[in-house]
Amino acid sequence: MSQMSFSDAEYAGKRKQTRREVFLAEMEQVVPWDALLALIEPEYPKAGRGRRPYALMTMLRIHLMQNWFGYSDPAMEEALYEVAPLRRFAGLSLTRGSLPDETTILNFRHLLEKHELAPKLLAAVNEHLGDKGLLLRQGTIVDATIIHAPPSTKNKDRARDPDMHQTRKGQQWYFGMKAHIGADVESGLVHTVTTTPANVSDVSETEKLLHGNEESVHCDAGYTGADKREELKDNKAQWHIAARRGTIKAMPEGELKEATQTLETIKAAIRARVEHPFRVIKCQFGYRKVRFKGLVKNTAQIVVLFALSNLWMVRKKLLSMTAECKRPPTPPSAGVGAMPGATTYRCPGPWWSGVG
């Protein structure tokens, strides 16, 4: 039996679980680890004459924690030394072997970028959710959000990132990129992601965000005319595009205007589901600004973030399914109304709740 470090021993003796530990415990159960590992393993370095690579599971867990908590490569290395729950989630120990350095963490991220594995990871997550009946793909909501980039030229090249661009929204100017998504109309889960510089119009990306089997497509006013574009003329879906505010405001007062406002309210309530993935990556995962230079690296991270946001949004349903499958039978109930010989089941709660 290996000896525990002082930090591990101190951590094992505490009683309260932090929110980070609860979060990691939930993700431990809902991430489809086998499917993700199967995608990366063919491209992952094999043991040879050089230094033996770290276990693929360990590096994948570290990469996901980088996205969940917003760590840079150097900060992730230091966090593994300082934060016991992160070290435990990655399956590492201060006394058993070494911890990956920032270069090893960077090389794993570059591996995913080089082989364009991020879209495949999103597809694997969505296939897992589809098997669980959580991704229906009967309709699509399309939308986009601006991700800010540093506008300063006080750097080595004395220039802004050439892959980013500035755009105007309302009376405000922004510099950065856009993340365009197509989300399931029922669940709000993201099935398609594209990225562009911020000055690219939303409507030009519409065709790339549809999987082609939609019965309906929902868009805001920024997508006006999308249903009439040449590349979408063969699309048979019903289009529900929001009317521009100026158009409604210019209508004369009366029943027609009231009916139009009521219809727009109903359409907006449906489109609101597409805002949930944006909230998760910006508020839950803290991704408000680009973290790398260039569109390719940032695209790879954004796609992974939306895959993780899908798991986050349906984690409670996935956990209940897991508990449903694992619930043990209990002795026959003797309560009122119980049938002779009947077997009742008690669904245990998550391990951190103390129930079950």
Describe this protein's structure.
Strands 1, 2, 3, 4, 5 and 6 form a six-stranded mixed sheet that branches. The protein has two domains: 6-114, no CATH class; 137-315, Nucleotidyltransferase, domain 5 (2-Layer Sandwich). Strand 2 (165-169) and strand 3 form a beta hairpin. Mean pLDDT is 87; it is low at 330-356. With 356 residues, it is α/β, with parallel strands linked by helices. It has helices at residues 6-12, 19-30, 33-40, 56-69, 73-82, 84-90, 102-114, 118-131, 245-249, 255-271, 275-284, 295-313, 315-326, and strands at residues 139-148, 165-169, 172-184, 190-197, 216-219, 238-241.
What's a concise summary of this model?
This protein is an alpha/beta fold and 356 residues long. The chain contains 13 helices and six strands.
Query: What summary fits the major beta sheet?
Result: 6 strands, mixed
Query: N- to C-terminal separation?
Result: 30 Å
CATH topology of the largest domain: Nucleotidyltransferase, domain 5
Order of SSEs: HHHHHHHHEEEEEEHHHHH
CATH architecture of the largest domain: 2-Layer Sandwich
Mean pLDDT, nearest integer?
Answer: 87
Please tell me the total number of domains.
2
CATH superfamily of the largest domain: Ribonuclease H-like superfamily/Ribonuclease H
- Low-pLDDT runs: 330-356
Shape from CA axes? globular
CATH class of the largest domain: Alpha Beta
Rg computed from alpha carbons, rounded to a whole number of angstroms: 24 Å
Helical fraction: 40-55%
Which structural class best describes the helix and strand composition? alpha/beta
Number of strands: 6
In percent, how much strand structure appears in the residues? 5-15%
Number of helices: 13
